[in-house]
């Protein structure tokens, strides 16, 4: 699993507090090995995660390095997390997709607000993206940062689509109810993409764990009861109603290792095809379209773009 602000910390994997003694840590490690061992009916992925967790905090030196935020990093995480890099490197001179709005902006604001509140009003926060600080923060705070990073990563992919596409980021909606956790606090549509293959409402997500499809919705341990496809459908409906247009597909984009398949059709919602898409497959999906999704061309494409330009509001 890729490193993410929402990835379980070694302490969370072993089921102990970050203040646990060395003896408590060892007992938890042995207990988790027994519980997760495949020969005893456990899950191989969890068994591996337990071993990785122990490698990170099993000795005094490794634990100290992890707690300082200096272990297991191939980049400077704080620099990566702090910098919004929405533009992909250009390899040619062809016109890029037209893009409006600030991808990840509202999620970053939410992260910073939560981090300041958690640290204490008036306290010197220092670097809010410092790795050890982020990893010690509550799940809600880490999820807010992960959302921002996911939206920015999707935006970099979308910027490569070409001039035939128009993109709106952080689109305001009126659908703030009937959704859970962070999404209820940020009533927005992450991305709206219009091109010859259709009109796509897109949510960029990173729950720090694997998800899968069941009965028209996404499920997974990391979701904690969320209904992300339902939430996306509500937001898409709000935007489409305001512009008097029809969304042809709903996509939830996740990191490649969060889904077993590159593109998985979830079902449909009000005539729109719904799908779970690995991030590396997103550009191809948008250029080629999804099976059963209506295409938009010619004057219809121009009319839909005009209606959206006149009605889209930004969060």
What attributes does this structure have?
315 residues; two-stranded antiparallel sheet; Helix Hairpins; alpha/beta; 16% strand
Please describe what this structure looks like:
With 315 residues, this protein is of the alpha/beta class. It has two domains: 10-68, DnaJ domain (Helix Hairpins, Orthogonal Bundle); 81-311, no CATH class. The chain is 42% helix and 16% strand. It contains twelve helices and nine strands. It has helices at 10-14, 22-36, 44-57, 60-68, 77-82, 105-119, 131-136, 139-158, 181-185, 228-243, 282-288, 298-311, and strands at residues 98-100, 166-172, 188-195, 198-204, 212-214, 217-219, 249-254, 263-269, 272-278. Strand 8 and strand 9 form a beta hairpin. Helix 6 packs antiparallel against helix 8 and helix 10 packs across helix 12. The longest helix is centred in the middle third of the chain and has 20 residues, at 139-158. The radius of gyration is 21 Å and the shape is globular. This is Molecular chaperone DnaJ. Residues 9-70 form the J domain. InterPro entries: Diphthamide-biosynth_chaperone (IPR052276), DnaJ_domain (IPR001623), J_dom_sf (IPR036869). Residues 60-80 are annotated as: Disordered.
In N-to-C order, the SSE pattern is: HHHHHEHHHEHEEEEHEEEHH
Overall pLDDT metric: 85
The helix count comes to 12
The gyration radius over C-alpha positions equals 21 Å
Helical percent range?
40-55%
In one word, what is the shape?
globular
End-to-end distance: 31 Å
Major sheet attributes: 7 strands, mixed
Number of domains: 2
Strand content: 15-25%
Specify the structural class: alpha/beta
Number of strands: 9
Which residues form runs of ≥5 with pLDDT under 50?
177-184
Q: Walk across the major sheet and give the strand order.
A: 1-2-3-4-7-9-8
């Amino acid at each position: 699993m890729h490193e993410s602000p929402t990835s379980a910390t070694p302490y969370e994997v072993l089921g102990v507090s970050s203040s646990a003694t060395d003896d408590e840590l060892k007992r938890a490690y042995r207990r988790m090995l027994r519980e997760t061992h495949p020969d005893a009916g456990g899950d191989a992925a969890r068994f591996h995660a337990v071993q990785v967790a122990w490698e990170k905090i099993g000795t005094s030196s490794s634990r100290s390095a992890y707690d300082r935020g200096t272990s297991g990093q191939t980049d400077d995480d704080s620099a990566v997390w702090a910098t919004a890099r929405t533009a992909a490197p250009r390899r040619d001179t062809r016109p890029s997709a037209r893009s409006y709005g600030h991808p990840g902006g509202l999620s970053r604001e939410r992260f910073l607000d939560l981090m300041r509140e958690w640290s204490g009003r008036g306290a010197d926060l220092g670097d809010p993206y410092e790795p050890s600080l982020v990893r010690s923060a509550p799940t809600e705070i880490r999820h807010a940062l992960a959302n921002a990073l996911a939206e920015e990563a999707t935006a970099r992919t979308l910027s490569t689509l070409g001039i035939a596409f128009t993109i709106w980021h952080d689109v305001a909606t009126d659908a703030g109810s009937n959704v859970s956790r962070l999404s209820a606090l940020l009533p927005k549509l992450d991305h709206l993409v219009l091109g010859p293959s259709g009109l796509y409402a897109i949510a960029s997500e990173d729950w720090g764990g694997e998800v899968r499809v069941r009965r028209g919705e996404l499920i997974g341990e990391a979701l904690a009861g969320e209904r992300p496809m339902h939430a996306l459908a509500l937001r898409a409906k709000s935007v489409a109603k305001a512009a008097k247009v029809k969304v042809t597909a709903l996509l939830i984009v996740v990191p490649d290792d969060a889904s077993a398949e590159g593109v998985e059709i979830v079902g449909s919602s009000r005539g729109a095809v719904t799908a779970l898409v690995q991030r590396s497959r997103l550009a191809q999906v948008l250029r080629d379209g999804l099976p059963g999704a209506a295409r938009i061309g010619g004057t219809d494409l121009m009319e839909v773009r005009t209606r959206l330009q006149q009605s889209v509001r930004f969060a």
